[in-house]
Amino acid sequence: MAIIRFDAVQRTFSQGGKDFVALKDIDFEVQDREFVAIVGPSGCGKTTCMRMAAGLEHPTGGHVYVDRDEVTKPGPDRAVVFQAFALFPWKTVWDNIEFGLVSLGIDAAERKRRIEQHIELMGLGGYEQAYPHQLSGGMQQRVAIARAYVLDPKVLLMDEPFGALDAQTRVVMQEELVRLARTHPRTVLFITHAVEEAVYLADRIVVMSRRPGTIREIVDVKSIRVAEGWDQHKRIEDVMDLPSFVHLRTHVWKLLREQQAGELH
Amino acid sequence: MVPRGADANAATRHPLARLAHALAVLAGVILLWHLLTAVFGVISPARFPTPAEVAASLQQIVVEGYSNARLHEHVLRSVLLVTMGFVVASSFGVALGLAMGASRKVEAFVNPIFLLLRPIPPLAWIPLAIVWLGLGDAAKIMVIFVAAFVPSVINSYTGVRQIDRPIFEASAMLDVTGWRYWREVLIPGALPSIFTGLRLSLQASWTTLVAAELIGAVAGLGQILNQAAQDIYPAMIVVGMVSVALSGWLMTLGLAWIEHRAMPWRVR
Amino acid sequence: MLEPRLDPARFLALSAAGAASFFLFWSAAALAGLTSREFLPAPWDVAARFSQLAVEPFAGFTLFQHLLSSFQRFAFGFVLAVAIGIPLGLLMAWFRWIDRIVAPVFEAVRFIAPIAWVPFAALWFGTGIGGPVLIIFMGAFPAVLINTYRGAKNVERKYIEASQMLGASSWRSMTEVLLPAAVPSIVAGLRISAGLGWQSLVGAELIVASSGVGYLMVKGQAAVSTATVMSGMIAIGVVGLLIDVALRRVQQLIETRRGL
Questions:
Q1: What is the pLDDT of residue C260?
Q2: Residue B82 belongs to what domain range?
């Protein structure tokens, strides 16, 4: 049973009288508890796809379905982790995580239980009463992820969540996300322009090209990952050394490079 | 709040559409006003006039006159007083502000007097002006002067202080001194701030004049208000208020036009 | 600035010289005997009168009683302006239809100088407290509304999207997102509107009051007692300054708490 479905999705802008096709013929599904990454050059519309699933933007043609309902507006069932964190600066870590739970009408005792659980899950112990500006970028993004996870959403939408972090923090977060995804699997749509990140994290990768934004190819990662036993290696650098990883990564790179070359002519 | 598809509000952003919309709302308000006063009597005519009464008063003051003069004569008188006070005050004020901005010594010397006088609101000078100069025009000009002076000084001063340092260094390198320094470096650099100050000075001048005229005058917009209050003539009060608003608004527009001509390099 | 900063000693010396010149000039003019000392008092005459007014009633009350009266009116009008301005600003920022209805009316009425409401204030409230409160409200309200509206409208898109994604109702969006985000702008607006409100108070009391500092000055003017008028001016200036300093402190406290 599919959870996120893009059905013949188109997105056209009109600017100064002319029509500009941003997305064309986007057709794919994210299965239940599957981790799908969208990779593509900037401007290919990958973020727009995620925002349409979130209900923050709307297609001009076709439909986006989450759990068989068409997406019309944003909501806690489709939790978003933003690149810029978007934590409320005037609320503490605890209050930020609690915000969505209040909307769901969950009673105070249950809220407390869930928040404590996720504080521990994301390694935020001791920071409950801190304000976002007192935290590092990595910590803030952990809070953002906790805020999304705690909602027990149908789907999790992540928009280049590690893009604003420095390289070392980024690696740590990737490892943690993998750990989380294996122990608490969710349906995830993950946007990134970093190929290695996508190959490391995802079950499948949707490779997009731009002008107009279309799907180039959908690459299956999971079967190779399981067959080659990537999860046996705890550290990301060990996984990235494996020949199967390198092969897959190069394959995706080539897909992206070909369109770049095509564009230059 | 997030519209479906393309920007759903593009149509209402067009300036003409916005104007039409604003007029529609105002028309609605006038209709509501009419209903509340003339038709249903929710607001008694002793407290607030009907639209018809206001229209009649307007006609009266434009054609026959009220309180010793017709509307345009009142307007002219007020505008004249404001202009005189404003021009004199802002000339002195801008000059002093620029001097304070350009010279630390001038700033040091003048600062304490300024700090002492600044917290006193312009309207608070009215009784003093009346004691010293009586109830005539002289007192009004004095108060307008005080009202217009302070914002001009402050904004001219900050205007100079916020000029980018590299501009000063460039002018030193190009050996720009004396009158040229003022005319081609200081004043143009400070001009946006100066105009902000002028706008504030103008608004302050208007408010102060109306207040002064309310207290005692022979003619002028404030005098209309004063007389209408004494005669208990609500409809004329409304005419006076609207006249004050419109005149002030038009003068501000005039200033904006001058500002636009004076700073053609400014990106709007 | 190409002119180098003066060292503090020099700056202080020049400032002292400036202040001294001012008072010297004033004293000389008063002592020159061109007019009566009632008409043009010397600085020390004003100081004496000020102290006198602190204990002896004039025009019905002592200076501080008049000040209290004025401050009460100011407080009423200011609190009213804030109590209506902030919620209305938030509502206008969140609900476009409220914005479309209120904005044109507001823009039209805003241009009427607060003092122009005096005739209606007198008509509706006589010399009761309602009159000055109305005028203070008219003076203070625009800045509160505008600053609240602007602060709320300028909230970064990502916070609005986050609150929508998290399923917040309109009420929660306005109170838990817009309002906190707009606080810096609101507080800046409070300072401006307090200043304008205090100024409007003075104007109102010159005409429609039977107590208060403005009233004191009018009575002083009628008695041709410049020293009384000046004492009133000083009192008004000092209180206005204190209000501004207090609000500036509030502004600073909020800024440090938010880590701005």
A1: 53
A2: 63-262
Q: Which residues of B touch A14 (CB under 8 A)?
A: 6
Contact present, A181 and A125 (Cβ < 8 Å):
no
CB contact under 8 A, B5 and A73: no
Gap between the Cα atoms of C136 and C65, Å rounded = 19
| Lookup: tokens for B103 | 């010279």
* Exposure of B99 in the CB half-sphere (CA atoms within 13 A): 12
Name the 3-class secondary structure at C57.
coil
CATH class, domain A2-77+153-264, is: alpha beta
If you measure CA to CA, which chain B residue comes closest to C203? Answer: B123
* C-alpha span between A95 and A127 (Å, rounded): 12
Q: Find out whether C177 and C160 touch, Cβ atoms under 8 Å.
A: yes
Extract the tokens encoding C59: 């025009």
CB contact, 8 Å: A18 with chain B? no
CA pseudo-torsion sign A123, A125, A126, A129: positive
Task: Please report the pLDDT score of residue B5 as a whole number.
Answer: 35
Q: What integer pLDDT is reported at residue C258 of this predicted model?
A: 66
Is-contact B206 C113, C-beta < 8 A? Answer: yes
**Domain membership flag for residue C105:** yes
Total domains present in chain B: 1
Count of Cβ atoms closer than 10 Å to residue B11 Cβ: 8
Residue of B nearest to A55 (CA): B2
Has residue B11 got a pLDDT over 60?
Answer: no
Provide the CATH number for the domain around residue B191. Answer: 1.10.3720.10
Query: Which one, of C17, C40, C1, C31, lies nearest residue C225 by Cα?
Result: C40
What pTM, to 2 d.p., does this model score?
Answer: 0.85
